[in-house]
C-alpha cells in the first residue's frame, strides 16, 4: 500500500484536531482509499502541552526546513495561523514540489493570487476547504458540485466564536466576557480573538468566497466590516422584543454589473432559517441561477470539525498523487 507522508506545521487546537481525525479514522480511510496516510513530522514549539493524541517525541521538530525541504514529505499541512511566517512556509513548500493544505483564512485572503499562482507554477495542489465554514464543505460545493451555476448571492454566518457569544448572551444568560472565555476554552476563537469579535475573520472568509464564487479579488481590508464589540445586552433584548436575533452576517451579491459586500451585525427575523443557527454553528446561503437557493449548515469552528475539512483536502490530494 502506498504511503503518503505528511508534514504538519503547528499543533495547536486545529493541528491536534487534524491529527486526531486521522488517528481515529485511519483504518476506515485506508480501507476506503487504499492509501496509508501518515503525519510523520510536526513543527511545534510547545512540547509540554497535553494533547489527547499519541505522538512520539521524535516526530516533533523546531526547524521548518525539516518539513519544507524534506525529500520524504509529500503533503504539507499549514495550521500555524497568521499571515507570516505561514505564507512564506507554504510558498517554500510548493517551490519544493510539495502539495499544501491550510485552514488559514488570513493567509489565503491576504495572498490569494500569490499562493494559487505559485501552486500552478510548481504543478502542485493547494487546497483550503477548512479556511471557510470549518467542517462545512462550502468551497468544494462552490467549485465542483455547483460549478455550472452563475452565483447571485452568498449570505451567511461565518464565525463560530461570535455566533457562540451572541447565542450565549441571548439564551444562556452569559455576559460577553464569560461567553468569549468559554469560546476560547473550547478552541473556537483565534489566538487573538480580536480578529473574531471585530469581524476581520469573517471578512477574510468572505474575501475567499467572493474570489471563488464571483471570480473577483476583494482584499479583506476593503470589505466594509463591523464586529460585535459594540453590541450590548440591550440590543439583544430589543432584537428579541422585535421577534428576531442579532447575527453577524456576511453578504456578497450581484448588483447591476458589480458585486456589493459587507460584514456586520444584522437583525434576523425568527422566521428566517439563519435565526436558528446557534453557538459555534455556521450557515451559508447560496443562490445560483440554475440551482436556486441552498443552505449549508454545520460546525464552523472547533478542532474536530476543522480537522475533518483539513483531512478531506489531504485525502483528495493523496488520491491524486496515488493516481
Ligand atoms: N475563530 C474562528 C471562528 C475559527 O470562531 O469561526 C474558525 O475559522
Coarse morphology: globular
Please indicate the count of domains.
2
For the termini, the CA-CA separation is 13 Å
- Strand line-up in the sheet with most strands: 3-2-1-4-5-6
Given as residue ranges, the uncertain stretches (5+ residues, pLDDT < 50) are: none
Query: What ligands does this structure carry?
Result: L-homoserine
Radius of gyration: 20 Å
Structural class: alpha/beta
Task: Specify the CATH class of the largest domain.
Answer: Alpha Beta
CATH superfamily of the largest domain: Dihydrodipicolinate Reductase, domain 2
Please, what is the average pLDDT? 96
Number of DSSP strands? 11
Helix and strand run: EHEEHEHEHHEHEHHHHHEEEEH
Q: Portion of residues in helices?
A: 40-55%
The proportion of strand residues reads 15-25%
Report the total helices: 12
Write the CATH fold name of the largest domain: Dihydrodipicolinate Reductase, domain 2
Characterise the protein shown here.
The protein is α/β, with parallel strands linked by helices and about 325 residues long. It has twelve helices and eleven strands. It has two domains: about 1-135 and about 305-320, Rossmann fold, CATH 3.40.50; about 140-300, Dihydrodipicolinate Reductase, domain 2 (2-Layer Sandwich). It has helices spanning about 15-35, 65-70, 85-95, 105-110, 110-120, 140-145, 160-170, 175-185, 195, 200-215, 235-240, 305-320; strands at about 1-10, 35-45, 60, 75-80, 100, 125, 150-155, 245-255, 260-270, 280-290, 290-300. Strands 3-2-1-4-5-6 form a six-stranded parallel β-sheet, with helices on both faces. Strands 9-8-7-10-11 form a five-stranded antiparallel β-sheet. Helix 3 (about 85-95) links the parallel strand 4 (about 75-80) and strand 5. Helix 1 (about 15-35) crosses helix 12, helix 3 packs parallel to helix 5 (about 110-120) and helix 7 (about 160-170) crosses helix 8. Bound molecules: L-homoserine (HSE). The site of L-homoserine has 11 residues, from helix 7.
Amino acid at each position: 500500500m502506498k504511503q503518503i507522508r505528511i508534514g504538519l506545521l503547528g499543533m495547536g487546537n486545529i493541528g491536534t484536531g487534524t491529527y486526531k481525525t486521522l488517528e481515529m479514522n485511519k483504518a476506515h480511510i485506508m480501507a476506503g482509499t487504499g492509501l496509508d496516510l501518515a503525519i510523520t513530522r510536526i513543527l511545534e514549539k510547545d512540547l509540554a502541552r497535553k494533547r489527547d493524541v499519541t505522538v512520539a517525541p521524535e516526530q516533533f521538530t523546531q526547524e521548518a526546513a525539516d518539513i519544507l525541504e524534506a525529500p520524504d514529505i509529500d503533503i504539507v499541512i499549514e495550521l500555524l495561523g497568521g499571515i507570516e511566517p505561514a505564507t512564506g512556509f507554504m510558498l517554500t513548500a510548493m517551490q519544493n514540489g510539495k502539495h499544501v493544505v491550510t485552514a488559514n483564512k488570513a493567509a489565503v485572503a491576504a495572498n490569494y493570487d500569490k499562493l494559487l499562482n505559485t501552486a500552478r507554477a510548481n504543478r502542485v495542489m493547494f487546497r483550503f476547504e477548512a479556511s471557510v465554514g470549518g467542517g462545512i464543505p462550502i468551497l468544494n460545493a462552490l467549485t465542483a458540485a455547483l460549478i455550472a451555476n452563475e452565483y447571485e448571492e452568498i449570505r451567511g454566518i461565518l464565525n463560530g466564536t461570535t455566533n457562540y457569544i451572541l447565542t450565549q448572551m441571548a439564551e444562556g444568560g452569559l455576559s460577553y466576557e464569560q461567553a468569549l472565555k468559554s469560546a476560547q476554552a473550547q478552541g473556537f476563537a483565534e489566538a487573538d480573538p480580536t480578529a473574531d469579535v471585530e469581524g476581520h475573520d469573517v471578512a477574510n472568509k468572505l474575501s475567499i468566497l467572493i474570489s471563488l464564487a464571483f471570480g473577483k479579488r476583494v482584499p479583506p481590508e476593503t470589505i466594509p466590516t463591523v464586529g460585535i464589540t459594540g453590541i450590548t445586552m440591550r440590543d439583544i433584548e430589543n432584537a428579541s422584543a422585535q421577534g428576531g436575533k442579532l447575527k453577524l452576517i456576511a453578504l456578497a451579491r450581484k448588483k447591476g454589473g458589480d458585486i456589493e459586500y459587507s460584514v456586520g451585525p444584522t437583525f434576523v427575523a425568527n422566521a428566517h432559517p439563519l435565526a436558528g443557527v446557534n453557538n459555534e454553528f455556521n450557515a451559508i446561503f447560496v443562490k445560483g441561477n440554475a440551482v436556486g437557493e441552498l443552505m449549508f449548515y454545520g460546525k464552523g469552528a472547533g478542532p474536530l470539525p476543522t480537522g475533518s475539512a483539513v483531512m478531506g483536502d489531504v485525502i483528495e490530494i493523496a488520491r491524486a498523487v496515488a493516481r
